[in-house]
Amino acid sequence: MSIRIWHQSFTVLGELTPYRQALEEHFRTVSRADTEIVMHGMRPRTYRSNYPGDDIKYCAFQYLHGLQFMQAARAAEKGGFDAFALSTLPEPALREIQTLVEIPVVGYLEAALESASKAGSKIGVLVFISELAELTAANIRQHGYENNFVVASHVGFTFHDVLPAFDDPEPLLERFFASARKMIKTGADVIIPGEAPLNVILARNGISEVDGVPIIDSLAAWIQRAERLVDAHRDGQSMQPGGYFSTRPPKDRIDELFRFYGLS
């Protein structure tokens, strides 16, 4: 039975054609043949430029932008999608979204950590935005992988450096290798390339390890996790353990509050 996944980026994908095309190509190689991944980005003019990092390094702005993710998840469920997948390291409003909809909701970091924990015992995460290292560490604790975590640190370049690498990857790859080797020296025996644009550059250039240390394909990890959760959901397996952080509010009250806050 086919699966439809709503992919949600933290970028305005309409302004990033090479990145979008690279994602589409990669998704076809790592998903099941009958899985359809429908790509979505943020609304036009969400940011001042095509780069979200100037905003999302601030927790208040990330909270506000996370409202788009909450709206998108509800649209995915109403649109008949089988799963909603956050394709961004910070995972804005992930825990809240998982209580708003009944379809499986998958986080990018959450899936990458699951995959990394099977490939090694000491996880390192490379990020574009240095301020997100602290958030990444906090999210790792929330996901229950604190004992497997070594460090989250800046990769040594930014999103703006990645865009030209879709045409000329070698200079960027050399800088990535240098950062990865530095992280390996801190004790990491498996590395998550934290940002999705970097992930897809590495994947399309066949980079799956550095000096024998695995490099996790986080995009493949969340697609495959989404597929597994959809299978479990269809088999009637519950994914809501209960408690404050997991209990789903009444649907009519969700609708009422979304209308009240102008989020319908």
Layout: helices, strands, pairs:
Layout: E1 3-8, H1 17-30, E2 35-40, H2 53-56, H3 59-78, E3 83-86, H4 94-100, E4 105-107, H5 108-119, E5 123-127, H6 132-143, E6 149-154, H7 159-165, H8 170-185, E7 190-193, H9 196-204, E8 209-210, E9 213-214, H10 218-234, H11 251-260
Parallel strand pairs: 1-2, 1-3, 3-4, 5-6, 5-7
Antiparallel strand pairs: 8-9
InterPro entries: Asp/Glu/hydantoin_racemase, Hydantoin_racemase-like, Iso_Racemase_Enz_sf
GO molecular function, one term: amino-acid racemase activity
Protein name: Racemase
Walkthrough of the structure:
- This is Racemase.
- With about 260 residues, the protein is α/β, with parallel strands linked by helices.
- It has a single domain, classed as Rossmann fold, CATH 3.40.50.
- It contains 11 helices and 9 strands.
- The strands form 3 sheets. A 4-stranded parallel β-sheet has the order 2-1-3-4, sandwiched between helices. Strands 6-5-7 form a 3-stranded parallel β-sheet, sandwiched between helices.
- Helix 1 crosses helix 9.
- It is globular.
